[in-house]
Specification:
This protein is of the alpha+beta class and 132 residues long. The protein has one helix and six strands. The chain has a three-stranded antiparallel beta sheet with strand order 1-2-5, with no helix packed on it. A hairpin with a 3-residue loop joins strand 1 and strand 2. 14% of the residues are buried.
């Protein structure tokens, strides 16, 4: 006497429900991965493109009520903007903060600016530069 197999023949009736579910999950994962990659690329592109002003502090000299900062700024021609500087005392407290504006068609500005302080500053820190 022979017994009938409970299993269906391979490949005769299409994919099983597990195989269909696996395929749908792979497709959904690929779509979500591509969307995430596009979003990261979009933000990275706009971060790089919108950075039209860059600057660095070359040197600084502190007195009792001011800090003279030698600032070098690189920007696109015709771009107006400002850079924010701050100074801190020896104990770490902030003693001065100010924005310095840059306008005109020059692409490189090499300037000494004076940051007024409430006490003797020991640092001159560039917090950032922005267009506007």
């Amino acid at each position: 006497m022979s017994t009938a197999s409970a299993r269906l023949p391979e490949g005769r009736y299409g994919r099983s429900s597990d195989e269909r579910a696996d395929r749908k999950l792979k497709i959904a994962g690929a779509v979500l991965g591509a969307a995430l990659l596009a979003l990261v690329g979009y933000f990275a592109y706009h971060y790089v493109v919108e950075s039209r002003i860059s600057a660095q502090v070359i040197t600084f000299e502190a007195t009792d009520n001011a800090v003279k900062v030698h600032l070098e700024v690189h920007k696109d021609s015709g771009t107006d903007g400002y850079c924010t500087l701050r100074s801190q005392a020896a104990d770490g407290s902030e003693v001065g903060r100010a924005d310095f504006r840059f306008t005109g068609s020059a692409t490189r500005i090499d300037q000494v600016v004076t940051l007024r302080t409430t006490a003797k500053g020991t640092t001159a820190e560039l917090l950032g530069c922005h267009t506007g």
